[in-house]
Amino acid sequence: MRVTIRIQKEPFDISAETAELAYDGVGAVASFTGHVRGSDGVNGLVLEHYPGMTERVIAEHIEEAARRWNLLGVAVIHRIGELMPGEAIVLTAVGAAHRGDALAAVHFLMDHLKIDATFWKQERRGADLTWVEPRTSDHHAAGKWK
Amino acid sequence: VKILYFAWVRQKIGKSEETVAKPAGVETLRQLAEFLARRGAGYAEAFADLSRLRAALNQMHTGLDTPVGPDDEVAFFPPVTGG
User: Fold this and answer.
1) Chain A residue with Cα closest to B62
2) pLDDT digit string (tens) for A26-66?
3) Are A1 and A72 contacting, i.e. CB atoms less than 8 angstroms apart?
4) Which string of b and e fits A8-36 if b means at least 16 CB within 10 Å?
5) Do residue A53 and residue B7 have CB atoms under 8 angstroms apart?
6) Which is nearest to A52 in space by CA: B41, B13, B52, B58?
7) Given CB atoms, is B65 within the 8 Å cutoff of chain A?
8) What is the pTM of this model?
9) Which terminal Cβ of chain A has fewer Cβ within 10 Å, N or C?
């Protein structure tokens, strides 16, 4: 299985990243892209993370996904720093022989990334920055995989 | 003990990391947090309500009652909000 985990300030190219996963034997590439919501007066996000731990946590979830489903490649790319509304913030893409494995693994990885990958977001409204509070629904989403 | 702070914990304390000698009587992360809370106003504010904080030991999520050793890397932070 090929695994890519990147935490970066720069934008990523969704087509290029998913094309990377479509090598021999891969019949399905499923992906999820999260974008910055520009609702409630939010005109940007600022993200930080725990270098080293973030990558480790994501790698553990990928290993768990690979035990549950038959996967050939996984890419998780998450941005940090300053982001504007509409910009892509996270990409999770999975390559597998068949779509069922790829779709389920993307869902699993996103639900788990939300609850314990070590990122913290601030919302910008005008000149004000406020820390985002976690949503309890995220824990319920991850709990259903147990 | 190497200690890292993230998000508003980092802002209140005014630094992102520091190394402290493990104080006598500090055996768990909770006791370390209580010790740090006495180091100044920013620390006191950051550690005022431990139920709002999460912790990691050597880059793994853990509870506050986990034992801590002198060569460990500890992190204190709010619940994560990635994705």
Assistant:
1) A116
2) 999 999 999 999 888 899 999 999 999 999 999 999 999 99
3) yes
4) eeeebeeeebbebbeeeebebbbbbebeb
5) no
6) B58
7) no
8) 0.95
9) C
